[in-house]
Specification:
The complex is a heterodimer of chains A (about 240) and B (about 280). By secondary structure, chain A is an alpha+beta fold. Chain A is built from five helices and 14 strands. Classes of the chains: A alpha+beta (about 240), B mainly beta (about 280).
Chain lengths: ~240, ~280
């Protein structure tokens, strides 16, 4: 994708928004993340943070941007130079999920309305490999792409006031895990005993944009065991490098 | 040590926020009204990023378990120390065991209590600002204790006093830039944004302020993208939400306006039923 496909806008007086075409697509994600890395490698001092999403980068500056045109030119020249860069290392994370109906509060409803036996819902959901597009909404909430269309299910029109920590949900064509107790409108199909955000770690979330996720079905007993191991920091999430 | 005697409406420890963790979904947080928090620290010759306590709408009281010097800026919440009125924007010596009480506001919504040397609760990800699941506590509750260093006061001649312009709290024009999706709005919608006098709804907190009035709206949601404090979102129902310091890092509603830094501070001193107008200003 050439720089002409991108649009550059100011967003307030302290940030620049760069947008790709508005589609959820891995090629676009890779282009977004490569550009983000290239900007980071240039270590421009006045840049304090960069938020990447499906199709955008928002670049935050320390103070008001004096000359927006020259700043945009600098960013464009970085885009044109970045192709020699090595892509960042990404991992496939194997996330244990218990799909027991004790946790999967909405499995039955999805099963009825989508005409799929519960076993098949679990089979489809845990067979896919999902892509982490970005982290947002809550600390450690992964936006995952790649849900099978058979599992498409509208968000609840009346969101639950309390969704449990670790709840695995489906919201339209997205799936994800609530990293903390929260209100939420997604349909809950299971629960993961893993900690997705740990304030005590230098890198508080193990995953990053561009990583992959696969769900591994576990029973209630293993859920409890892993939960306890996680509490004592004895659980090691299985992972492999995907793009070495 | 500072001990919380009564919780009040909402009080929390804040500094100027947690920058650089948006990639793991951590909001910036920090004092809602940066200007008042900085001023309180400056008057005490602290660093401007030192931790302060933000007190919303009063009802909170605190006991000092050591001697120190404090300064209160921002809203005037009729603060008293051992029943003596505290002058805002002025360094005040506090004796051991005295009790500071905040009551109903005279003007403004959020007061800032700075202390010589700053509050010393543990830094998490480079900041002392409270935020749920990031810091252990997210709101101060009765009997909570917050560390600070004792200061033996000799005299306070070197400390400055600032005369504050109260008008700041009465401003009803909020300066805004056009947001990234502003150009998608119809002429009528743009006119409504600038002409309607908006009212802050009861649904307002550190994450955002929902406004009462409706804008006619047929705009669809956007693909989830970055938002920041001061972003004004237009929801499908036509309601506007002004995001504040604890806002999420991403959102899917069109971002129609972006408050200037000073407009965020001004809005932080307003609350439910207060009204204002947006005034669009050019960048630079």
């Amino acid at each position: 994708m050439t720089v002409e496909n991108l649009t550059y806008k100011s967003f307030g007086n302290r940030s620049i928004l760069i947008e790709w075409p508005a589609i959820i697509d891995e090629k676009i994600l890779n282009s977004v993340l490569n550009y983000k890395n290239a900007i980071k490698k240039n270590s421009i001092k006045v840049i304090v943070d960069i938020i990447s999403t499906y199709n955008s980068l928002t670049i935050f500056y320390h103070t008001s941007i004096e000359n927006i045109d020259s700043e945009m030119l600098t960013l464009k020249s970085i885009y044109n130079e970045q192709y020699s860069l090595k892509i960042a290392k990404n991992y496939l994370w194997k996330i244990p999920v218990c799909y027991d109906q004790k946790f999967g509060l909405d499995l039955e409803e999805i099963s009825k309305k989508n005409g799929l036996p519960i076993d098949e819902i679990i089979g489809i959901h845990s067979r896919q490999i999902y892509t982490v597009y970005f982290i947002g909404f809550l600390p450690g909430f992964l936006y995952l792409g790649g849900l099978d269309e058979k599992l498409y299910f509208q968000r609840k029109s009346d969101p639950r006031l309390v969704v449990e920590k670790g709840a695995v949900g489906i919201g339209a064509l997205q799936t994800g895990i609530y990293p903390q107790e929260s209100a939420g409108g997604w349909n809950i199909i299971g629960n993961s005993p893993i900690q997705f955000f740990d304030r005590k770690n230098e890198q508080p979330c193990f995953a990053q944009a561009g990583d992959k996720v696969k769900f591994i079905p576990i029973d209630i007993k293993s859920h409890e065991e892993i939960f306890n191991l996680v509490a004592y920091k004895r659980y090691h999430i299985e992972s492999e490098v995907v793009n070495a | 040590m500072l001990k919380v005697v009564s919780q009040g409406v909402y009080a929390s420890v804040q500094d100027l926020g947690r920058i650089g963790y948006a990639n793991v979904g951590v909001p910036i947080s920090g004092a809602m009204d940066h200007d008042s928090a900085k001023l309180a620290n400056l008057i005490l010759h602290n660093d401007i990023d030192d931790a302060i306590i933000e007190i919303t709408l009063g009802g909170s009281s605190f006991q000092f378990l050591k001697e120190t010097i404090i300064c209160i800026c921002g809203a005037d919440l009729n603060a008293t120390i051992d029943s003596i009125k505290v002058i805002c924007n002025h360094p005040v010596i506090v004796k051991k065991d005295s009790v500071l009480i905040f009551e109903r506001p005279n003007y403004g919504t959020r007061a800032y209590l700075a202390i010589k040397g700053g509050f010393l609760n543990k830094k998490v990800l480079n900041s002392r600002s409270f935020f749920k699941e990031v810091t252990k506590k997210y709101v101060l509750k009765k009997d909570d204790e917050i560390l600070f260093n004792e200061i033996k006061v000799v005299d306070n001649q070197s400390l400055s006093v600032v005369k504050l312009n109260r008008e700041l709290f009465l401003i009803t024009n909020l300066e805004v830039y056009e947001g990234p999706e502003f150009t998608l709005l119809s002429k009528k919608q743009k006119r409504q944004l600038e002409n309607i006098e908006f009212t802050i709804s009861k649904d307002n907190n550190r994450m955002g302020y929902k406004l009462v009035e409706n804008i006619e709206n047929k705009l669809k949601s956007i693909l989830t993208s970055a938002v920041m404090p001061g972003t004004v979102q237009l929801t499908p129902s036509g309601k506007l939400i002004v995001l504040m310091r604890d806002c999420q890092v991403t959102g899917g509603y069109p971002r129609v306006l972006q408050l200037t830094d000073s407009a965020i501070n001004i809005l932080s001193q307003k609350t439910a039923n207060d009204t204002f107008k947006f005034k669009i200003v050019p960048l630079n």
